[in-house]
UniProtKB/TrEMBL annotation:
Gene3D superfamilies: 3.40.1190.20. Homodimer. This is Ribokinase. Pfam families: PfkB (PF00294). It comes from Rouxiella chamberiensis. Activated by a monovalent cation that binds near, but not in, the active site. The most likely occupant of the site in vivo is potassium. Ion binding induces a conformational change that may alter substrate affinity. Catalyzes the phosphorylation of ribose at O-5 in a reaction requiring ATP and magnesium. The resulting D-ribose-5-phosphate can then be used either for sythesis of nucleotides, histidine, and tryptophan, or as a component of the pentose phosphate pathway. Substrate binds at N13, L14, D15, G41, K42, G43, A44, N45, E143, D255. Its cofactor is Mg(2+). K(+) binds at D249, T251, C285, R288, G290, S294. The gene is rbsK. Its EC number is 2.7.1.15. The keyword Nucleus does not apply. Residues 132-159 form a coiled coil. It catalyses: D-ribose + ATP = D-ribose 5-phosphate + ADP + H(+).
Length: 309
């Protein structure tokens, strides 16, 4: 596979994860089966996924000048990225997340303190213009301040860089911004919030997709967990099957999907094939604990894909 260039602007969080038999009720204390601390944040997770799925990656993030920020630098320096641009601020802490993982389906509940992730300045984003213009793909999310996301998308649009927006975690965005995006990748919850249509299955996902097309979005993939994903290009629907998996931790599933998808598209793979590979990649990811630490290699995802043929 040709190694394409993916530029990821997104969050870095320090994740503190507790494995539980079930989620606690309000006011209740439960003993965790296990706990771990590791690198996370949607941006950093997706950058690692794109890297391990075969892309050359330039990651852009922002942290605080604290112990968590030191951890972030060490992690990012050792990840193997082509380049890292890491801004910092003395005024806000490094982003962090408290995560419960519970039950046989390994579902998760997450509380995020975004901290420095919400403090990108226009000047900092402008410094990244050459990296964005040189990339085949810009991959970004909504875990940073919206002004930064808008500016980075404008730069990518001007440069002709293909733009993937994963609208997570949800925050309101304008239809004008959505119309600049080449590929939108919401999950069912985010799609519901974007459209007002409750997305619970393929049929409702198709209805929501049509609403998003009316907002000017040409191509989108709505991820639906174990139901797979719906790919819609100008209203032409294709179902992306979910690959069999025995889940251990679903925290990084969406990030795995988006990173692998970006890597495939950057290498010149068509959208349908890229989405199928990303589905296989995510199925391997959920069988491991942690977010960034659980991202599989290109070969592991390919093996999963071949095993179901």
């Amino acid at each position: 596979m040709k190694k394409g260039k993916v530029c990821v602007l997104g969050s870095f969080n320090l994740d503190i994860v507790a494995g539980m038999s079930r989620f606690p009720q309000p006011g209740e204390s439960l003993i965790a089966h296990n706990s771990m601390m590791g690198a996370g944040g949607k941006g950093a997770n997706q950058a690692v996924a794109a890297l391990r799925a075969g892309a050359r990656v330039h990651y852009i993030g922002k942290v605080g000048r604290d112990d968590f920020g030191t951890f972030a630098r060490r992690h990012l320096d050792s990840a193997g990225f082509d380049a890292v641009t890491l801004f910092s601020t003395p005024d806000f802490p490094t982003g962090n997340a408290l995560i419960y993982v519970a039950g046989i389906d390994a579902e998760n509940m997450i509380a995020v303190d975004p901290g420095a992730n919400l403090t990108f300045t226009a000047e900092e984003i402008e410094q990244c213009r050459p990296a964005i213009a040189a990339a085949d793909i810009l991959l970004t999310q909504l875990e940073n301040n919206l002004s930064a996301i808008e500016k980075v998308i404008d730069i990518a649009e001007e440069a002709g860089t293909f733009i993937i927006l994963n609208p997570a975690p949800f925050q309101p965005v304008s239809d004008a911004l959505l119309a600049k995006v080449d590929l939108l990748t919401p999950n069912a919850t985010e799609c519901t919030l974007l459209t007002g249509i409750e997305v619970i299955d393929i049929a409702t996902a198709q209805q929501a997709a049509n609403v998003l097309h009316d907002k000017g979005i040409y191509a989108l993939i709505i991820t639906l967990g174990t139901q797979g994903a719906l790919l819609s290009v100008a209203g032409d629907f294709q179902l992306i099957a979910a690959f069999p998996a025995v889940p251990k931790d679903t925290t990084g599933a969406g990030d795995a999907f988006n990173g692998a998808l970006a890597a495939q598209l950057a290498s010149g793979i068509n959208l349908l094939e890229a989405a199928n590979f990303a589905s296989a990649y995510a199925s391997v990811c959920v069988e491991r604990a942690g977010a960034a630490a659980s991202m599989p290699t290109y070969e592991e995802a390919l093996k999963r894909q071949w095993a179901t043929l």
